[in-house]
Amino acid sequence: MKQFDKELRDLLYDAEMPVSSTLWDNIEKRIDTKPDKPKYWMVFMLTVLALPIFLVINSNNHSSSKITQPKEIVIQAKQQFSYNSQTQIQTQNLKTSRDNNIGNNINNPDNSLTQFSSSSIGVISNVSASEIKQVSSSPFSPIVEAKTDTESNIQKIDSGINSVLLKFGTIAHPQVIDLLPIQSVASDYGDDRPLIKRLFSAGTKCPSFKRNLRGLYLWSDITSSYASQSLASKQGELSQYINLRNESEQSLFSYSFSTGLGYIHPSGLFMEVGLTYDKINMKFYNKEEDIIGSEEIIHIIRDQNGNEVGTETEIRPIIGYNEIVNHNTFTQVEVPLLLGFEMPVTPTFSLAVKAGPNFNLSSQNEGRIMNIEGTPFYYGDKSETKIYKDKLAVGYIAGVNLVKNLNQNMSLNVGLNVKSYDQFSNDNNPLEHSFIKYGLSTGIRYRFL
Amino acid sequence: MSPLSLNNHTEKDLIAMCIDGDSYSCKQLFDLYSRKMMAICYRFARDRNEAEDILQEGFIRIFNKLSLYSGQGALESWMRRVIINTAIKYKKRHIIKHSYSDIDNVHALDTTPSVIDDISRDEILALVQSLPEGYRIVFSLYVIEGYSHKEIADKLEIGESTSRSQLVKARALLRTKLLNHRKLAG
Description:
- The complex is a heterodimer.
- By secondary structure, chain A is an alpha+beta fold.
- Chain A contains 8 helices and 17 strands.
- In chain A, helix 4 (about 95-105) links the parallel strand 2 and strand 3 (about 115).
- Chain B is mainly alpha-helical.
- Chain B folds into 2 domains: about 5-90, RNA polymerase sigma factor, region 2, helix turn helix motif (Rna Polymerase Sigma Factor, Chain: A); about 105-185, Arc Repressor Mutant, subunit A (Orthogonal Bundle), CATH 1.10.10.
- Chain B has helices spanning about 10-20, 25-45, 50-65, 75-90, 120-130, 135-145, 150-155, 160-185; one strand spanning about 95-100.
- In chain B, helix 2 packs across helix 3, helix 2 crosses helix 4 and helix 3 (about 50-65) packs across helix 4 (about 75-90).
- Chain B is globular, with a radius of gyration of 19 Å.
- Chains A and B meet through helix 1, helix 2, helix 8, strand 11 and strand 12 of A and helix 2, helix 3, strand 1, helix 5 and helix 6 of B.
């Protein structure tokens, strides 16, 4: 028998048969070619990164637009000198011009040109004063109210950073500070150092915005995020299974909602505690064959002489494809405990950084994934198969926010945050499964004490 | 030399490009192995059309699962397994009712040393093809593909004893057909 089998095997194992020329066309239509997909997540992340920059630039443009657009503004300035009602003001260097022109104007009361300058901050503009009148009678500190036609003749902005400083310098003027409801600002003009040094170096003479915000506040945040899945083998080589899982699962937009109580100290340090409802959404996709109908075929078996020797009835199913799409979810309830620091960068904007642990209270999950044999199966709380924990250990959050102060009590914020989780897998799961979420958050703060 | 090297591609490169969805590489892989895989499919199928259906499903499966090929063992062996699994899956979906008049009466085993000496490969293939489907599949898996009865039983969801008896009957019937063919030819 072995000889008979061997002879047949030798003869038939490498046998070949011609294939219909149209077969490849049919196959090509049905295999998944993978065109380069646009990296949507990269576009999203770039957009999110660009947003704070855009807001800062936009706020500066708004500031400079007040200079470039012809309209009436009121300039209030304390000056230790007399002036001419037809004075033309040319801003060039705040420090030197103020000092020099004080002297010039004192010595030359007929001087028709008073120069204010901000050359160190890169902005030169001519502002012609159509009408300037004295509104204070004090001989030592007359208040000049200049009703000006602010048609700028020269405007040169060297960089966005420099233009920010112009705004600092302008707003930081003592008389203007009084108009700001939220913060008092103390500033010293004439510091030629770069903005970064002026803001952060010890003994800086940069404008310092001391915020009188302190006390308790309520906060709420909504975060939309992208959850990056991480799968690793607990033991043994399961790279093929991990590949299969990664191919069949992809992240969808996830979100979380948080609310809680916070306390901010006048120094800018703050602490927040709250409750978070967090959801991670994943998409499971699998395409598998399925029967979509049937047909019956009767075969007549004949011998070599053409005589009928039997029949064979075949019920042949019509095969189609069943595409399985399932939304997998991981839902957490958490208590975040965050410590942070808020640093004013303009009179109305602040930057806040915060980080802290995230205590998980419960985790629920449900969905469909591939098992190790490559067959889809259900898992989760409603299924008999549990492969994830009901409660996770501590995770971590870190974030940076841009805060817009609306008034003394209310502020809005937008920011980026990163959130890590403990392992989701329990002992039944051959893989270690965790997520890192990258989110864009928006929120509101309301100070009540 | 592997035919793959003629196109300055190693098998590994070709697989990588197929995984990337390069249509030309997929076509190359298909051209290299389709004729051999077609012969396998034909042994499981009733006719050429059905064999091509199986081959088509098999290659679609190969391209979709190619990323799971670990690189250990020959690609051809891996592809054979995928094609055979596809063929078995395909056939399982076909509920077949047999009504043979005299086939089950074939039990005798001819112990003639060789009955295939003067018969061409195509003729033998045709005779194997004329075996009843159940016999043919077990025969192909055991004799040509080298599966054990346990593996056949697992794949076809039948008992091992059924697999053995199907094989015995397949051998006997094929031998009879071969002898008859020789007599007619002689």
